[in-house]
Amino acid sequence: MSEGKHVVVVGGGILGVSTATHLRRDGVPVVLVTEGELADGASGRSLSWLNSAGSRSAAYHALRVTGIDRYRTLFAADPTREWLRFDGALHWSADRNAMEQRHRAETAHGYDSKLVPPAEAEPALDPAAVPDVAVHNPGEGWVSLPHLIEHLAAEFTRLGGRIVTGAGKASVTTAGGVATGVVTASGERFEAGAVVVACGAATPAVVGELGVSIPDSSPLSMLVVTEPAGTALSAVLNTPRVCLRPNPGHTIAMDQDWYTDRIAEAPDGTCTIDESVVKELTAEASALLDGDVELTAASWKLGRKPVPGDGEPVFGELAEVPGCFVAFTHSGATLGLIAGELLAGEIRTGTRHPMLDPFRPERFRH
């Protein structure tokens, strides 16, 4: 970027905060504008399992594994952080053949994957409540995104970055077809040489105002966090009826997708669900744990989970609107650090990174 150019980042989730922080590390002046508070969208209700499990394209797998590498670097700097752990993950389903296929797909690209009795890999499980075999990925982990965002935001402001919260919905301004900044719902304007749109499930709508179409398949979702629990669970568990992981403060975070049709969404985007569904989910989790553990929900958050129409990430500059960059992906947690790093590099230098080439927004132009 030419000297003196500013960047405005729209979105206070992990992708926005990570990109803003990486830009400030490189000395670029940045203002981060968010509709509400930091981490109050999808990043605040993500299971945030750090993984490249299952089967996916080689390019997507490589990007996810690199994303995990950046988390390992952060973990090595302070292994005592309770909001970032690498204690492995377990997956099982009722279909033994599907599990074995998943295991073969993972080992085919060198991913650490084993078929084991789940209670052997995770002693906190009740052996009588789990199947005789599961896929074990010892190198996986989890992160609490609100804690990570707080950590990055502190660095960002310490480096001189500015954060504007409570700005309401923002729109990208243009001149001659080129992005020139952002205007908020109240009319406040922020001029910039580049804009980053990282608004989670709202991203397609924001760029849609510019005449750019990004297909959107973002489903409704819910994350439940329990009261402090008397369990020594350390691994991430992905099971047919509940997915769960440890969470800071000796709590448990959990979600699944069998109840999505029971989430009601109002015209203004607010969501509700009957508390009986929350109790059913916590009961499913409790049944897996050894020692008569009875989990109790402390809170639950609902909203849209960002998922591009073809399931693949969308990263990079809009060909139709030079100077406007997009970050939109289902794997925001796993890719949070690496996506921010690579996007910041592209914005600062004007050079495209080859790892992002398969995920450019122009793939939807045909």
UniProtKB/TrEMBL annotation:
Coiled coil: none
Family matches, as InterPro entries: FAD-dep_OxRdtase, FAD/NAD-bd_sf
Residues covered by the FAD dependent oxidoreductase domain: 6-344
Record carries keyword Oxidoreductase: yes
Keywords of the record: Oxidoreductase
GO-annotated cellular components: cytoplasm
Source species, domain of life: Bacteria
GO molecular function, one term: oxidoreductase activity
Protein name: D-amino-acid oxidase
Source organism: Amycolatopsis bartoniae
High-level lineage: Bacteria, Bacillati, Actinomycetota, Actinomycetes, Pseudonocardiales
